[in-house]
Amino acid sequence: xxxxxxxxxxxxxxxxxxxxxxxxxxxxxxxxxxxxxxxxxxxxxxxxxxxxxxxxxxxxxxxxxxxxxxxxxxxxxxxx
Length: 80
Known about the structure:
Oligomer: single chain
Strand content: under 5%
Low-confidence stretches: none
Number of helices: 4
């Protein structure tokens, strides 16, 4: 759990400034709309990891990547 939460936290911290700059460029309303759609699709991917085999590391790696991406998409909300 700590590794998964750490992946989210690192992505959240890394993507704050880039998404703030993108929000300045394209506007807050469009940025927030895109972020909500993207993180909703990411959560769909997290829900679909149930179908991966639990015995190997495939499910954990998939969750790790999806949590990182999810944190990145959520990072743009505060600057937006």
